[in-house]
Amino acid sequence: MRIPKGLLSVGAVAAKDVGNRYQMHGVMVRRKGDKIEVAATNGKSALVVEAPDAVSSPLPGFEDAEKRIENFKTILPAQVAIRADKAAPKSKRGKSPQPLEGVLLNEATANGTVELVAYDHFAALTQTTRVGAINTTFPPIEQVIPSHEIVKDEAPPAGGKPTPLRAVRVRLNPRLLSELMAAMASAVPDPDDQRGVTLEVPLVPNRPVKLERKCGDRKATGVLMPLVAVDD
Fold first, then answer.
1. Residue 122 pLDDT exceeds 50
2. Inter-residue contact 5 to 186 (CB < 8 Å)
3. What is the CATH number of the domain that holds 169?
4. Average pLDDT, the chain
5. CA 46/CA 51 separation, integer angstroms
6. Is the pLDDT confidence value at 96 over 50?
């Protein structure tokens, strides 16, 4: 599997210290239809990123490593995933429909020791990194991503007094919010820096805040739990 540059940066959202809950120290990587999906969580925030599962010519000398496994899924240690992503060169995708830089993951090895190698266009750049996969069940992030009915703006009545704007107050952890936003920017780069991140804040207190970022053929969806109900 070729994981495009930036996707494994979701590891920044993974938990730093959660005791024996090892799955939260990892980055889940799986094939979902015609897409690659990567995800990470720390129990209070989560991030899922999708990108096309591009098929291109095998890297010279790595033909066996590019064999596809049906329903492939594995969990990589987050810090290893981040280092592997950083080892890949900065993207120079240009007009190519395929991602030219990223991390090659040998799917056939993912039941135990996973093999990773950074690549640039048609050549491998680094020696193969071998790391033990996290052998456990990844949290069902898709079950906590909220679905909201978006409230439309209401026009003020003609000739009447302006209607007071309605708002909800939400208290968020600034460190988790910053980590989430930075990871979304890295995983879904925007050369023009115009698309931003869309926030959906539910009108009901203490419900998850949803963040979304789209650019080209990539999509990132984040979730962040509020700290406490705001009544002050």
1. yes
2. no
3. 3.10.150.10
4. 82
5. 17
6. no
Return the pLDDT at 157. Answer: 64
> Of the candidates 16, 13, 25, which has an alpha carbon nearest to the alpha carbon of residue 225?
13
Nearest to 187 by CA among 23, 34, 36, 1: 36
Least confident of 6-10, 35-39, 115-119, 175-179: 115-119
* 230: pLDDT strictly greater than 60: no
The radius of gyration computed from the CA coordinates of the chain, to the nearest angstrom, equals 20
Helices (H), the chain: 78-87, 174-187
Identify the domain containing residue 92 by its residue range: 1-139+148-232
Distance separating alpha carbons of residues 18 and 146, to the nearest angstrom: 24
Q: Tell me the whole-structure pTM to 2 decimals.
A: 0.84
Q: Which pLDDT value is given to residue 206? A: 83
- Per the structure, the count of domains in the chain is 1
In which element (H, E) is residue 48 found? strand 45-52
229, HSE (Cβ side, Cα atoms, 13 Å): 5
Helix (H, G, I), strand (E, B) or coil at 50: strand
Query: Cβ atoms within 10 A of the Cβ of 109, count?
Result: 18
Q: What is the 3-state secondary structure (H, E, C) of 175-217?
A: HHHHHHHHHHHHHCCCCCCCCCCEEECCCCCCCCEEEEEEECC
Transcribe 126-142 into DSSP letters. SPPEEEE---SPPP-GG
